[in-house]
Amino acid sequence: MSLANDRLTNFPDSESVGQSDGAIWQWQSWEGLPYLTCSLLSMWSHGFFTAQFSPRGPSDLTEVLSPGARVYRLKQVHGNAVLKTGLLNPVAASPTGPETTAESYAEADGLVTERELEAVWVCTADCVPVLIADDRTGLAAAVHAGWRGTAAKILPEAIAQLVAQGSQLENLRIAMGPAIAGEVYQVSVEVAAELGATIAPKSAVNATADGILEFLHQLPEPPVLADRSPGKVRLDVRRFNALQLQQLGISLSQVAIAPDCTYSDSARFFSYRRDRLKKVQWSGIVSGGQTSPS
Q1: Rounded to whole angstroms, how far apart are CA atoms 263 and 227?
Q2: Closest Cα to residue 120, out of 98, 153, 91?
Q3: Distance between CA atoms of 167 and 158, rounded to whole angstroms?
C-alpha cells in the first residue's frame, strides 16, 4: 500500500516531548534505544517499545521497566478474550537469550493483573496497544486492540474485569500507544460499519452499512474518513476505542492517544500494512500497590 500523503515522523536521539489531549507523551532512552511513555501512567512503570528493541521479548523488556517483576504474555488471536494473571504461569526467561516462540501461551488479547509487581505485555504491528491502570488499587491491564478486537469490544471487556476486581471507572487511566493512523488505514465500508455498530445507537441509524457510515461521519472528530476508492474508507481504530470508553462513562480526560503512526514512521516502528512482515513491537505495564488512600 503506497499513499502519496504518507507522513514520516522523525525524532532526534535526545528526549522528545509531545502532547495529546492534555497528556504528555515522552521519549525515554535505554542503552540508546527509544521507548515511549505517557504522563497519565506516570505512577506505573510502563513503556511502548520501538522496533529498535527487537528481538527482545517481555522478559528482557521487564528488566528495563521493573527488574524482578513477574512477566505475563499471550498468544494473540485478534479476539476479545481477556485473562487474569492468576490463570497463567509467569513467562520464564530463556537462559540462552530471547524467549523462544515455541513456548505455549494462552490464547487471548488482553491481560489484567491481580497482584503487585506483575508485568503484562501485548505486541502490535499496526493494531492498538492499550495500557490501563487504576490509580487507587494499582491494578493494571494490557490490551491488543486491532479492528477485529475493537469490533468485539475487547477494551470494554478489560474494563469490566478491572471493575469486577474493585476498580471505579473514574480512577482508571488509559493510554493508547502508537498504531496505524486513520489517515492512512484503508478498509472496506463493511469493516467500518462493523465497528460503527459498536457505538451507534440502534434507534438512530438504519441497519445498513450506509446508515451506520452516515452516523459516523456526523460525529465530532469522526472515526472514519473519506477514501478515493469505491467501497473504501479510512479508519481510526484508536478513535473507535475512545468512543467505546466514552459510552461506558469514562471521561476522555482519562484517555490519552499517542500521536505516532506505525505505518508512517518506518524509523521507529514495524508496520504489517507497510512491510507485510511478521515483526512486532511490545508494550507493557507493571502493576503497583494502592497509590492513593481508599
Answers
A1: 17
A2: 91
A3: 11
Is there a contact between 146 and 172 (Cβ–Cβ < 8 Å)? no
Q: How many beta carbons lie within 10 A of that of residue 189, not counting itself?
A: 18
Cell of 283: 508494550
β-bridge partners, 46: 285
Closest CA to 33 of 46, 49, 47, 45: 49
Q: Give pLDDT tens digits for 235-261.
A: 999 999 999 999 999 999 999 999 999
Q: What are the angstrom distances between the C-alpha of 16 and each of 25, 28, 122?
A: 8, 8, 24
Mean pLDDT of the chain: 89
Where does residue 273 fall: left (phi above 0), alpha (psi -120 to 50 degrees), or beta otherwise?
alpha
Whether 39 contacts 23, CB under 8 Å: yes
13: pLDDT strictly greater than 80: no
| Dihedral Cα 60, 61, 62, 68, nearest 10 deg | 30
Query: What cell does 69 get?
Result: 517483576
Q: Before 222, cis peptide (omega within 30)?
A: no
Q: Residues for the chain: how many in total?
A: 294
Q: Parallel, antiparallel, or unpaired: how do β-strands 255-257 and 224-226 relate? A: unpaired
Identify any residues that bridge with 286 across adjacent strands, giving them in sequence order.
Answer: 119
How many C-beta neighbours within 10 Å does residue 173 have? 23
Inter-helix orientation angle 209-217/189-196, to 10°: 70
By the 8 A CB rule, do 241 and 247 touch?
no
SS3 248: helix
Share of the chain above pLDDT 90, in %: 82
Contacts of 133 (CB under 8 A, 6+ apart): 41, 43, 44, 46, 139, 140, 141, 172, 173, 285, 287
DSSP state at residue 281: E
Residue 214 CB coordination number (10 Å): 15
Element (H, E) at 173: strand 172-176
